[in-house]
Amino acid sequence: MQHIQLGSAGAIMKKYLTTATPYETVATAADRMTENRLGALLIVQNDRLVGIFSERDILHRVVSRRRDPETTLLSQVLTPNPTTVTLETPLEQCIQIIKTRGFRHLPVINEFRNPLGVVYARDLLQYVLEAIEHLHHNDGDLSHILGTPKSGGPA
């Protein structure tokens, strides 16, 4: 069986960063996430990553606790000091982090904790699938590799 060389986080990270500060409200952050079609914002203070705020945080830390998004500050509900990777982190390691920790967004930082980008689980999956397709010289039909779903199973 052939081994797929995937590269590093820097190869697939999204470089366009949409950020917020810890002192913005949840409502402002949610508006920014909606406008930019994002599932998470990097929370930055003095150009350093201090947290991440995701759709899950909105659901679990704001809505389910009946907090007012207009008055709740991100500092009260963000995930502090998120797990991060660097530009050089192998994608195999990114996959392991995303898989074991259940993350959908993996910030990429430099040695000063300055955010450089984000590895999104969806982009990572797409990249891996394209690598498999390339390895097997096919055009999107992975049924011979993945098998055909059994009747009544997920499509």
| CATH fourth-tier homologous superfamily | CBS-domain
Proportion of residues in β-strands: 15-25%
Q: How far is it from the N-terminal to the C-terminal residue, by CA?
A: 26 Å
| Proportion of helical residues | 25-40%
In CATH, the topology is named CBS-domain
Which architecture does the CATH hierarchy give at level 2? Roll
Q: Please compute the radius of gyration using only Cα atoms.
A: 18 Å
User: How is the main sheet built?
Assistant: 4 strands, mixed
Q: Count up the domains.
A: 1
Helix-and-strand structural type? alpha+beta
What would the principal axes of the Cα set say about the shape? globular
Number of helices: 7
- Residue stretches low in confidence (pLDDT < 50, at least 5 long) are none
Number of strands: 6
Return the string of H and E elements. HEHEEHHEHEEHH
Strand order of the largest sheet: 1-2-3-4
Q: Name the average pLDDT.
A: 90
Under CATH at level 1, the class stands as: Alpha Beta
List the keywords.
alpha+beta, 155 residues
